[in-house]
Design a protein that fits this description.
binds 3-methyl-2-oxobutanoic acid, eight-stranded parallel barrel, about 270 residues, alpha/beta, 2 domains
């Protein structure tokens, strides 16, 4: 579908629009972004939702996990992303320990992220245990996106990044958590690394959209970490990532050519000088 300058797709994407897209069976496209330029490119390409994921802890900061990411860092990156977007809905992750202690503190932190970054919504991980908090935040007028299945902030509890919901007990818990999150007021739910059939069952049971990552084709939308889908993270190859570019190779050969041109006295030439 093309994105015309004056057409339906040019208007800013809202949480309501995402629900309408689910109803009309129009799939929702989303990507992560962590900076102004990348967000601007994705927004202009027509991505519906941009998530400033705490995956920035891995791909931007080089940490093993997302746990060290702070509220200040989330606000810093989200501010830059918001400036690059005129159409996409911008969602900011609430970092580890910014919403787990008490729902009042979670509300204050969600409010801070919204107020200081100007994003459109926040996302937090977990099911039943975060529902009271989700309810409190949404009642204050801050849209909340849920996140179920593989929840990277709980890596130390589970000990691995294996797929979730692969046995009956786990699948039932994820399904029930999805219903509870909807009841608590979440406007959408990310389903990460769960079987496609479970994601289908959840998607059919919910009125709010599901956004899948490694959760198969039946979700209402899809999200990928952009550094994976553009081939910047070369040593991370899970089966759910489709690579649309090999930017690492492009950058390596471009920089090698640049170095060679300098060494060979080929750069700058007369036209590139004053
Ligand atoms: O932090 C992140 O990028 C995410 C996506 C994997 C959904 O939560």
């Amino acid at each position: 579908m093309s994105i015309s300058k004056s057409g339906e797709n040019q208007r800013a994407v809202t949480t309501l629009r995402l629900t309408q897209m689910k109803k009309s069976k129009e799939k929702i496209s989303s990507l992560t972004a962590y900076d102004f330029l990348t967000a601007k490119i994705f927004d202009e390409a027509g991505v519906d939702l941009i998530l400033v994921g705490d995956s920035l802890g891995n791909v931007f900061q080089g940490n093993e996990t997302t746990l060290p990411v702070t509220i200040e860092e989330m606000i810093y990156h989200t501010k830059a992303v918001v400036k690059g977007c005129t159409r996409a809905l911008v969602v900011a992750d609430m970092p580890f320990m910014s919403y787990q202690v008490a729902s009042n503190e979670a509300l204050r932190n969600a409010g801070r992220i919204m107020k200081e970054s100007n994003c459109n919504a926040v996302k937090l991980e977990g099911g039943a245990r975060v529902c009271k908090t989700v309810n409190k935040i949404t009642k204050a007028g801050i849209p909340v996106m849920g996140h179920l299945g593989l929840t990277p902030q709980s890596i130390n509890k589970f000990g691995s990044y294996r797929a979730r919901g692969t046995n009956e007990e786990e699948a039932e818990k994820i399904f029930n958590d999805a219903i509870l999150l909807q009841e608590a007021g979440a406007f959408a739910i990310v389903l990460e690394k769960i079987p496609a059939e479970l994601a289908k069952k959840i998607t059919e049971a919910l009125e709010i959209p599901t956004i899948g990552i490694g959760a198969g084709q039946y979700c209402d939308g899809q999200i990928l970490v952009y550094t994976d889908m553009l081939g910047l993270t070369v040593d991370f190859n899970p089966r759910f990532v489709r690579r649309y570019a090999e930017l690492s190779e492009t950058i390596t050969s471009s920089v090698s050519n640049y170095i060679k041109d300098i060494k060979d006295l080929n750069f700058p030439n007369e036209n590139e000088s004053y």
